[in-house]
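Supplementary notes for students who missed Thursday's class. We covered one full example, reproduced here. Read the sequence, then the structure, then the short commentary at the end.
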Amino acid sequence: MAAVAAKPDSQRVGFVGFVGAGRMAEAIAQGLIRAGKVEAQHVLASAPTDRNLCHFRLLPPNARVLRVSPNLPCVVQEGAMVMARGRHAGNSEAELLQTLLEACGQCEEVPEAHVDIHTGLSGSGVAFVCMFSEALAEGAIKMGMPSGLAHRLAAQTLLGTAKMLLQKGQHPAQLRTDTCTPGGTTIHGLHVLEQGGLRAATMSAVEAATCRAKELSRK
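Structure (token representation):
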């Protein structure tokens, strides 16, 4: 949870306070500082907490609460974030928070029921993608490529693919199909991934992370 105070007629905010000071709060804070939205001395943080919006219903009626789910790439201003409004949060508060967070990446407003799903998809998804990037590189290393080069190329491959999907608005299946040629290298590799259960394992990982996020938010 973050508290925000805006300066009149300014693109900056007066201060940002985080209720919860873990890695995600640090990622957002670093992203905001790098984007010039807030100065480092105006970032305040409390002890960590993990609460959903219903836990804040005992606050005074004029308390306007929005729940944010970020991810670690906020550090490099490429975060994938969602936010959900509390009962008393209006359009002005939502617009202010969304404008602020978009300095750290992409932020979309969703129903609160989707916030825990986002944790499984984009929060934990960072680790899932890192594991896949590591596996890509290790495949190349196994075939004789130097480690550093393999890891750089694997990361760039993921980055370039993500940019194509976002810029073209394509479904991933279409780009995957476009990459394949009859009897070529890609279709042979995809066959092995399907045999290994990559698709089902990834779906199950997102489901497991989402279920755990829901358990934690109820505590």
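Commentary. The chain has eight helices and six strands. The chain has a mean pLDDT of 85. If anything here is unclear, bring it to office hours.
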